[in-house]
Amino acid sequence: VRQAYAHSLVENPLQGEILRRVLHGGASTSRARLTQSLGVSKSKVAFEVRRLVAAGLLAEDGFADSEGGRRSSLLHVPHSAGFVGVFDLGATSTDVAVTTLSSDIVAHRSEPSDIAAGPRAILERAVELLDELLLEIGAHREQLVAVGVGVPGPVEQPTGRLVAPPIMPGWDDFGVRAVLEEEFHAPVAVDNDVNIMALGEHARGVGQGVENLLFVKIGTGIGGGIVIGGEIYRGAQGCAGDIGHLVADVHGPICACGNIGCLEALAAAPAIVRAAEHLAREGSSQFLAERLIAAGGLEARDVGDAASRGDYEALTIIRDAGRLIGQTLASVVSVLNPSLIVIGGGVSQIGNALLAEIRTSVYKRSLPLATRNLPIVLSQLEPRAGVIGASVIGVKSVLGVPTS
Ligand SMILES: [Zn+2]
What we know:
Blueprint: H1 13-24, H2 31-38, H3 42-54, E1 59-63, E2 73-76, E3 83-89, E4 93-100, E5 105-112, H4 119-136, E6 144-151, E7 155-156, E8 161-162, H5 176-184, E9 188-192, H6 193-204, E10 213-218, E11 222-228, E12 231-232, H7 263-267, H8 269-282, H9 286-295, H10 300-308, H11 312-336, E13 340-344, H12 352-365, H13 368-371, E14 376-378, H14 385-398
Parallel strand pairs: 3-6, 6-9, 10-13, 13-14
Antiparallel strand pairs: 1-2, 3-4, 4-5, 7-8, 10-11, 11-12
Helix pairs in contact: 2-3, 6-14, 8-9, 8-11, 10-11, 11-12
This protein binds zinc ion.
């Protein structure tokens, strides 16, 4: 297990807290505001800020509006403080990016891939892409202060190893973190794709300032990321939030996990596509039938296109999926009582009907107190939630606070 501060950018928790607040506070963080919000003495803040400026991690530019006393200089984290290398490995695509420490994307590339090709092939290509991006922006590997990685499978936290990932053959027990740390000589943080998206929304998206939220990813699978008190809640073995395998219909189909009637088997992209292809073949949707013939297969977004053209049968598929997801989320709401639910993932983009149906079902089935003030909204960062989230966990890992 890594020492909490061994690879950190900062020397003590106060420096970490100062950097976090400057990174989150945008362009308006001044010394005065830091002193106010941290509740420590002015001189302590001034001392640590000076050290961070000397280390190149903070820079001062301009002054905040005077609030009576002396003017207080504005702080920011300069680009020269370093970059974060980002790998967001999906089931069918690889996203690679370079971001600032504020998780602003400087360069980004996405290409189709097959996670089943195995860790060596996937990571070799991803590293190649990152080197290309660094070259493009005139930077080099030594400027990477951290690397953040998202993978579509369960990750053992202290070690950064994959544990029996169902859709990642050949990756079981593979030490993603160790391999990439050796490659880049920088700290590497690895987590599953849904957790990073949840943290991304919390730090940079629609969940900013919301301490308890549930992120739901609807794509090839369905997963949940739980943020409690600003941190990811992982549970005893790290698989908390796996809502795709809650039972949605005891008479439903067999799921990839071997159980019957899981939400994922009924409402994720493959189920939506299967229902759409059935419609197309039996002739109940002319639009989908034409798409099927033209493309040889359908995707979830075709169902959204059909629905937006007034295809009632396609709309029904989307509503059915939304209702099942909403009914399942209602149970989760009863357990967690979050103050925000964020819906993301590829399928979340197929049209307003999905979100509307999810909302209706959650509000209908949850206790009124739990939903009295519970917004259910689409991800603000999509389709970059994973990239930004992976950057956020990379940065977290070098600001000195163990991710518990
Ligand atoms: Zn299942």
